[in-house]
Write a structure and sequence with these properties.
Number of domains: 3
CATH topology of the largest domain: D-amino Acid Aminotransferase, Chain A, domain 1
Shape: globular
CATH architecture of the largest domain: 2-Layer Sandwich
Strand order of the largest sheet: 6-5-4-3-2-1-7
Length: 329
């Protein structure tokens, strides 16, 4: 009987402005994973460089033909992958499609769900079709002929301008005056070929994390995000001095209940897997969907680790739940 421990690759890095944050997330995952159960290998993906590192920091090139690596101890084949890449290619379905082709299971949503949820416009349309309210928006590509004036004939100021495919609020701006819109569009188009212009919804921002454990959904405490800047931008997300995250959120019980139920509903309807975070704004009119994070941050400053602690679970327990799901048929 072969009693060897399974080999798990922790992939981090990526091709986007979230590279450094992803590496930090991967390092946290590597720190807290259960080595009694599995052998773990940090793997950094960046451009054409895919390499595995050992404890000394030495690099060993990944063979992309089968996602294996030759280490000093011999050739390592991976039984599963823990995806810690935010943005492309780890959150938009590209990496998931690759692992499907080479036949290695992974911890995140599949390629179809990842692709859908990473595209904010497609995801908004899907969620709208399920009856979940969200803000009015205009979708643009670099070929679009809509002028700022035409956009503002369809939407009311203030608006958010954001890359349609992306995360951590990279390239995002809040526009309060018509004269600011053109510069905000240029900033967003530097990050993506597609841009979403979305009406500002006044209210309080909350978020809900969910992870699957076999046939059960563990719903983590709803958290309120209070940014000390005008909105929860990239800087705020990773600087604890610029944001307050209240776990659990001090909000009406009915909003907490609705947030959890809506998140569980979307988790199932979107065919999610692993740990996923759903973001909302709520006000006197109710709950408004913002976006889905299928590979949420795992740094020491990230929201999911804070939710997990408030739930009474350790990161070791969370990561063990996630990795065990790799091998449940």
């Amino acid at each position: 009987m072969n009693n060897r421990k399974k080999n798990i690759a922790i992939v981090m890095g990526g091709f986007s402005g979230e590279y450094d944050i992803s590496v930090q997330s991967g390092q946290v995952v590597n720190k807290y994973l259960d080595r009694k159960t599995y052998d773990f290998y940090p793997v950094v993906i960046g451009g054409k460089e895919w390499f595995c590192t050992d404890d000394s920091g030495s690099r060993f090139e990944i063979d992309k033909n089968d996602f294996s690596v030759v280490m000093p101890s011999g050739k390592v084949y991976f039984d599963g992958v823990f995806i810690a890449i935010h943005g492309t290619p780890g959150e938009d379905g590209k990496l998931q499609g690759y692992f499907d082709l080479v036949g290695i299971p992974y911890t995140s949503c599949d390629h179809a769900t990842s692709s859908l949820t990473f595209n904010k416009y497609f995801c908004k349309n899907f969620v709208t079709g399920l009856g979940v309210p969200n803000a009015q928006s205009v979708f643009l590509t670099k070929r679009s002929k809509l002028s700022p004036a035409k956009i503002l004939e369809e939407l009311s100021l203030p608006v958010f301008v954001k890359p349609n495919n992306g995360g951590s609020s990279v390239g995002m701006s809040k526009v309060n005056r018509a004269g600011e819109l053109e510069a905000a569009l240029k900033k967003a188009f530097k990050e993506d070929e597609q841009v979403l212009v979305e009406e500002f919804v006044k209210g309080r921002e909350i978020t809900c994390g969910i992870v699957r454990k076999e046939d059960e959904l563990i719903i983590l405490p709803v958290t309120e995000i209070i940014s000390k800047k005008e909105f929860f931008d990239f800087e705020s997300k990773y600087d604890s001095d610029l944001v307050e995250e209240v776990v659990p959120a001090q909000i009406p019980d009915e909003i907490t209940k609705q947030c959890k139920e809506t998140s569980a509903f979307l988790y199932e309807k979107l065919n999610c897997n692993g740990v996923v975070r759903f973001d909302y704004i709520f006000n006197e009119s109710g709950l408004n969907f913002l976006e889905v994070n299928t590979v949420p941050g795992m740094t020491e400053e990230s929201i999911i680790p804070k939710m997990v602690k408030a739930y009474g679970m350790s990161l070791e327990e969370l990561f063990l739940i996630i990795t065990k799901e790799l091998f449940i048929k």
